[in-house]
Specification:
- This protein is α+β, with helices and mostly antiparallel strands.
- Helices cover 29% and strands 28% of the residues.
- The chain has three helices and four strands, in the order αβαβββα.
């Protein structure tokens, strides 16, 4: 993966200029909380705070100063499809 500053001479536009990006990077790591905190300390904005996600990961998402979105995750549980489906139903129901 290569990221660069916006550069009109190369027709390289940032997500901020384009009004967003269809791409979101996702990184599995040993310690998603530490990586998330490091990204925020470096200037990223929290988009989705770290949480224990229904699919079994510890997960959070940031947006960097250029508009790229980064998800960080650490697998906490290995769930069966049935367990994940049940948790998803419960999670979406709790959203109102």
């Amino acid at each position: 993966v290569m990221l660069t500053d916006e550069n009109p001479e190369w027709n390289a536009k940032s997500p901020a200029t384009l009004g967003g990006s269809p791409v979101s990077m996702h990184i599995y790591t040993e310690n998603a909380d530490a990586m998330f905190d490091r990204a925020v300390a470096a200037g990223c904005e929290s988009v989705a705070p770290m949480m224990d996600a229904f699919w079994g990961d510890r997960y959070g998402k940031v947006m960097d100063p250029f508009g790229h979105q980064w998800g960080f995750a650490t697998q906490k549980e290995e769930l069966t499809p049935e367990q994940m489906e049940q948790r998803a139903r419960e999670w979406f129901a709790s959203m109102g």
